[in-house]
Input
Amino acid sequence: MKVEEGAVVQINLVNGDGAIHDLALPEFGVDSDNISGKNSSTTVVFRADKNGEFKYICSLPGHVAAGMIGKIIVGDVKPEPKSTALDISKNPMEVGTPVGKRGPQTHKVNLKTTEVIGQLGDGSTYKYWTFNNTVPGPFIRVRVGDTVTVDMANDKDSSMIHSVDFHAVTGPGGGAAVTQAAPGTSKSFTFKALNPGLYVYHCATPSVAQHISNGMYGMILVEPEGGLPPVDREFYVMQGELYTAQRHGETGHHEFSREKMMDEKPEHMSFNGNMNALTKTHRMEAKVGETVRIFFGVGGPNATSSFHVIGEIFDRVYNQGDLISPPMQSVQTTTVPAGGATMVEFKTEVPGKYILVDHALARVEKGLAGLLHVVGDENHDVFEAHSAVDPNH
Output
């Protein structure tokens, strides 16, 4: 909507679905009555006495996250210059090459630690600390018995010392004790992958929690002998949290808040680095009848995840990233601690949009959601709708 500055504006809100809704414009002190029942309506009137771009929303919990948000432009507002912030979100399809039935090999892993201004949400930015300019860092895929050399270079423009601790490493600090690298320097070490499993890695330079929160985490998969059973689709997803002085949803640049981190009160929570990573930027897709595997980890630094895919049941859950023990079966929600991981597998039976969440569902309000799009023919033997599917769900 676009109106002249100083104009008196009337907005009529009509309920099209029968659920409870309202209309709020916080910057103008507008908050309508709640309306319920299909075709019910309400009206708000206000004076547009501020020049700029403003949001109008449904203020009921969860409705903004479902898409009930819009923009009103008051006066002659010049468009903001295109953001030069980096898209740090990690592509979930970048999972490396399965090891198959090969024997042990030697690998080199190159990590570069960077400090970059990245996109946080629509209209907001944050200074992320990263491995290889993405959050999470690269997905590393090796085999048990492989020998791995890690070369870690800290960018010359960094302001902080950085390091890397691999939970898959047997050795001092998981490698962190020998990789404390000042800006513009490099460190290296070699380890043997002794144990199969799915493991987290992260920066381990004090304050460790701040380095992790800012984006310095990733995962390494150590496949067992013979490799993992083949599946049709594999995805790499990690959950993280950010602590900022600014509130979630505010535009502009957000600054780190140590106080909120110590109180374990994150303003933002996300999959794969930012608010749009798995909802707008990267499209996770599978076809009906395909098998899906998700490598899921929690960078943290503080919150435990209750990982759940709405509308699906995990056929197999490899609890705590354990690839040796028999998996759990027919699991609805699985717990993954900070610094932990799990591998889940399921077969897609019905087309539709499936939402990845942490079932501590208030966290959806802080940005923690992803989408898996399943395409193909309907399967009425499994699921048949008797009314139109809600496009906002």
